[in-house]
Amino acid sequence: MRIGIILASFKSDIKTFVRSKGTLFWTLAFPILLILIFGAIFSGAGEVEYELYVIDFDESEMSELFIEILGETGVIKTKVVDVEEDKIMDYIEENDIKRLIVIPEGYEETIGIVQMGIDENATTNLSFYFDQSEQQTNSVVRSVINSVVINMNMETSGGKEIIHIKDVETISGDFDFIDFFLPGMIGFTIMQTCVYGSLERNTKFRKDGILRKLLTTPITRSEWIFSKMLFQLFLSFVSAVLIIIIGILIFDLTVHVNIFVIAIIVANSFLFTGIGMIVGRFVKEEESAGMAGGAITFPMMFLAGTFFPLEQMPEFLQAFARVLPLYYVNEGLRNAMIYLKTDDTIFHTTIVLIFACVFFVAGLLLTKWKED
Amino acid sequence: MIQKKVSCPNCGKTTTIFGLPGEVKKVVCSSCFTEGKVTFPKTVSDTGAAIEVSNLKKVYGDLVAVNGISFSVKKGVVFSFLGPNGAGKTTTVEMIENIREPTAGIIKILGKNIKTSFDDIKEKIGILPQEFHSFERLTVRETLEFFSKLYKKRANIDDIIEAMDLGDQEKKLYMNLSGGLKQRVGVAISLVNDPDIIFLDEPTTGLDPKARREVWDVISDLRNRGKTVFLTTHYMEEAEYLADHIAIIHKGNIIAEGSLEELINKYGEGSILHIKNCKTKDAVKFLKDEGFNAYKESNGDIAVKIEHKDRVLEILSILRHECAEYDSIDIRRSNLEEVFLHLTGARLLEGD
């Protein structure tokens, strides 16, 4: 490996990149625009439905009726679980539960007391536990529960506020949609630049005769690929830093940069460069390369939890998403940068590293300069 | 003494000059009187071949693209590989350049087998692949600097820019250059390591006549600088103008090989002298009596086949002696198109 040759190639890449306004836009400005647009749309807006865990300490006809009405809304799918009162938080954390409602003991009795006029001011509190990082989903669930509670109050007491909802946040810190979205955007942007960058080198450079030319010069295939990886890593870190700066300046985000974040960014670059190399081996035409790149990145963009949490999708799609490398990149970055869940971070980082090794080595083995 | 064939950059007239190793000789074109300089190589080239190809074969399934061809290229010459599209030119040159794997055969460059010594050979050759386009957003100078850094031996970039007449273009992005300039840059890239052998694969395809002429001038200059040039082309005028030695390839086989004169003499009809509107009776007879192959054409003109240009003077002398009256005389020489037609029964541009 000759550093001089690698640096010469790296330098020419930087010049080419800076002079291509289109590439600059799609690599750096486009993700920032997406963050600004999606951030503005989803930071306070609602979303769809979802699974709601229910702990019914009352186990009465009234509490069962409440659960039944929640299910009938068509927006919420209830799942009744049996958990001791002092272990609720542990249960939520262990099972990674996003939303849970607790019907307290004495729920039916309190309603009866008001209905019979024994104590017209008696109230009962439903506790709604929710993960703040999924604000847009939870805001919908919260509003549906609220509507059901208003109806119940109307039906049982003519509108007196017997049933109240008490909100309990399950993750410490003030997480927002942007906390969810920003790490996904970093993963997605790196994926895009690496896949398309790699495809370009293997189709356009082949078509233009540059690979044939290089084959007849002293530069080796590994020196060339290494210099391109150096450039991809440079781009990946520039993109990540820019996105983080936007997150901090515009959305007041708290980001933690640690060894896992760096490891995932590096592994992500190798992973998707490898995928680009594999596809580039089979897609010979420059025109087809764009379509092939889209066929890889487009489904991952929507299915791997970049813009929306996985649980907003049907179960079969969720299962599919869990085989997509970008899902582990996104989750790893979220856990490492925002939620600081060490175990999950290690798990996701390991998966990403394995994916990176497999795809990059396969890409290296499949890439060839010689013509048939 | 070293012998060197040079072409005048102004009128294209080719002349052979003799000089000593390393000598810079001032020359004046005998046709247009343009002055120029010829630099002789510092070392006398040995008699070994620059390129030797033996029984080279390339097969794709049922298709035999190159059918066991053999040839050698002398040092310091422009060797033209001429043939129609699909004849096997690029497949052959790319096997020599180690871009394609041959099915069979041996290739040696500067005496070394490319299978075992291509890393050494890379430093001594420069290549312009077919339809080559360099990095679009690098300037001409940056492009040359990039490729230069890949080699141990590096030519002076300023010298290359001057030699290729790219001084006005060096700060322009490659993408903004005309087709002719791009090809000139392509040739310039192939010179960054000061190679002994330069491979140019159809360097003028798709260029307009002016741009083509510019590239021809560059190639002529390479020969004048003592480089060996392996040129593939399907333009017969290109081979006629540039080549010292021509190999004609057709359907994967070399069907003829030699200098332009040799090929035309062997396979062409030689040259034909036309005497327009000759009013003298028996002119054909006089010429025939002197041993010329003369005949009357359908339009009344007299045609005389001549094998060598010196015989033109003899014909003129006979006509003067016989007080022959005529309007004008012109000479049409056989060309490679006719040679190809004679050999294959097809025209060069539609030969495949």
Task: Give a quick set of tags describing it.
heterodimer; A: 372 residues; alpha/beta; abc type-2 transporter like fold; 2 domains; five-stranded mixed beta sheet; 9% strand; B: 352 residues; alpha+beta; Rossmann fold; Alpha-Beta Plaits; four-stranded antiparallel beta sheet; 30% strand; globular
Percent of residues in helices of chain A: 55-70%
Question: Could you say which structural class the secondary elements and strand pairing of chain A correspond to?
Answer: alpha/beta
Instruction: Determine Rg of chain A (CA atoms, Å).
Output: 26 Å
In angstroms, what separates the terminal alpha carbons of chain B?
44 Å
Low-confidence stretches of chain B: none
Q: Tally the helices of chain A.
A: 14
Can you summarize the main beta sheet of chain A?
5 strands, mixed
Spatial separation of the terminal alpha carbons of chain A: 27 Å
Number of domains of chain A: 2
The count of strands of chain A amounts to: 5
Q: Helical element count of chain B?
A: 11
Q: Helix coverage percent of residues of chain B?
A: 25-40%
Spatial strand arrangement across the major sheet of chain B = 10-11-12-7-13-14
* Large-scale geometry of chain B: globular
Task: Write a brief caption for the model.
The complex is a heterodimer of chains A (372) and B (352). Chain A is an alpha/beta fold and 372 residues long.
Any overview of this molecule?
- The complex is a heterodimer of chains A (372) and B (352).
- Chain A has 372 residues and is of the alpha/beta class.
- Chain A folds into two domains: 3-42 and 176-366, no CATH class; 50-169, abc type-2 transporter like fold, CATH 3.40.1710.
- Chain A has helices spanning 3-19, 21-42, 61-72, 88-94, 107-115, 135-157, 177-207, 210-215, 221-251, 259-282, 286-303, 315-321, 325-339, 342-366; strands at residues 50-56, 76-81, 99-103, 124-130, 163-169.
- In chain A, strands 2-1-3-4-5 form a five-stranded mixed β-sheet.
- Chain A is elongated, with a radius of gyration of 26 Å.
- In chain B, a hairpin with a 2-residue loop joins strand 13 and strand 14.
- The mean pLDDT of chain B is 86.
- With 352 residues, chain B is an alpha+beta fold.
- In chain B, helix 5 runs parallel beside helix 6 (209-224) and helix 8 crosses helix 11 (336-344).
- Chain B folds into three domains: 2-39; 49-264, Rossmann fold (3-Layer(aba) Sandwich); 270-333, Alpha-Beta Plaits (2-Layer Sandwich).
- The two termini of chain B are 44 Å apart.
- Classes of the chains: A alpha/beta (372), B alpha+beta (352).
